[in-house]
Amino acid sequence: MLKINLVRSADCNEEILSDVYNLLKGFQGPIVFKEHSEFVHILGKEPSPESLEKMVEYCSLEPPSRMARESINFHDRFKKRNTVSWEQIFKACAKFRFSNDIGDDEFVILLTTYNNKLNWFSASNPEGPRDHFVHTEDWDFFLGSDRRFPIAYQIASGILKKLVFTNYEDLGAHWHHDPRGCMLDFCQEKAQVTFKMRTGDICPDCLKLFSSRGVPSMVMEQVFRIIDGIRLQMIYKNRFVINREVPAMLIEGRQKNIIFPDMGNLMVRLNPLEKTLYLFFLNRNEGVQISHLSDYRDEIFAIYSSISNSDSQLAQSIRINDLVNPLSNSVSEKISRIKRKFVDALGDDIAANFIISGENAAPRRIPADRSLIRYID
User: Fold this and answer.
1) 262 or 108, which is more confident
2) Within-domain flag for 152
3) Whole-prediction pTM value?
4) Range of the domain at 70
5) In this predicted model, what pLDDT tens digit does every residue of 110-120 receive, in sequence order?
């Protein structure tokens, strides 16, 4: 077993780490990924609320439009973030490794939004330890897809390269400066990464090299499955336009997390009240008019209390009373937010199958084929 510890720096949104972990854990094999809830400090201190607010403003999770990608002033965008050295990054990895008693045979992979002084997308520690970082920002400008895929690709390929090559001189001697669509293409610009990610290929020369370096075949096979899986999932939305294949939905665990396994274990993140409303409509195939929600108050309360982290039944009751109140705008606001989150995650065409839809005076319902929906504890 090869254990990979995934951790984020304080500047990096915890949802990014969780989404990447959920994508990678879907590929079974000797490589085992572990998500850590704590974060590390590259700069040695907690970022101020003001700086975190700027990070959210300039590092939006929502991919920009094609026109925005073409007109963006990258200098203005980049200068809003801190730039750190590799030494600072790997020092933070070393502290995390020490404080968590992580063995030398395990990997520590750090996700960060900070620019690094060499402007690399990702890199392993040149001094020997199995520490690696991945820069999480700006992928949306080049790939037009969510950044889980390039981040996961950098992690998988980084693991294999660390196992194959003894140092950067060794790696540099085998880089392809003329792109082949191979893992070892030397992509000086992030835009060039698109080619090798969409091919998801390893050239014959590299396959021969990897095998000769003694990397266990099962480890290589798992990395290749991850890379190929990422390629397929990146183009899933494009395939949907052609064959209209609707993905399956998984409702998982006590928290009733909403996951799409066919899309790399993509999770649509709803807060407890939004999730309560969504699960209620999912249980009502025929739909319910918004003005009649108060008739189902006890059913909705039971769903909410089963997934809410709140200990106070009074607080839960107040929230549900407001949700089903026909004079309140609470339910309309939540339906709108639920729609936005599904569209952001799945795209307009696929999301249309899963959003709560219907005219104002008509029953609202989720049109999804219930045979595509599975519940597991």
Assistant:
1) 108
2) yes
3) 0.74
4) 2-234
5) 999 999 988 88
